[in-house]
Amino acid sequence: MFNIRAKIYLKTVEEDGHSTPWFSGIRPSFNLNGELITCVVIELTGKEWMPLGHEYEVRIDFPYGDEYLDSFKPHEREEIMKNFEPGARFFLHVGAKIIAWGVVL
Predict the structure, then answer these.
(1) Which residues contact 57 (CB under 8 A, 6 or more apart)?
(2) Residue 47: C-alpha distances to residues 16, 24, 33, 72 (Å)
(3) Would you say 89 and 31 are in contact if contact means Cβ atoms under 8 Å apart?
(4) What is the pLDDT of residues 76-102, one digit of tens each?
(5) What is the pTM of this model?
(6) What is d(CA 81, CA 51) in angstroms, rounded to the nearest whole number?
(7) Which domains does the chain show, CATH number per domain?
(8) Which residue(s) pair with 101 in the sheet?
């Protein structure tokens, strides 16, 4: 398993986001070049709930990240890892719906 630190913004219902506040430990999908990969979002200040419409600093764990990366050749893996470098932008999904966006810290 590997993880990243990121700042995320949780979309509101009016922005077509999630319909309820998030809790630390929620498992959305991380959009990696069009592929959705399971992740776990952990809020870093100790809050249990994360109301919508705000930014949060989080740790994003990828419980199956190593297995996912192992399915690629070494040169492809290097290219994929660029998506986790500081400044890289990403989306979090539930199904096809984007519920948050963020940037790697």
Answers:
(1) 5, 6, 7, 43, 44, 45, 105
(2) 24, 7, 30, 36
(3) no
(4) 998 899 999 999 999 999 998 999 999
(5) 0.93
(6) 30
(7) 2-104 (2.40.30.10)
(8) 9, 91
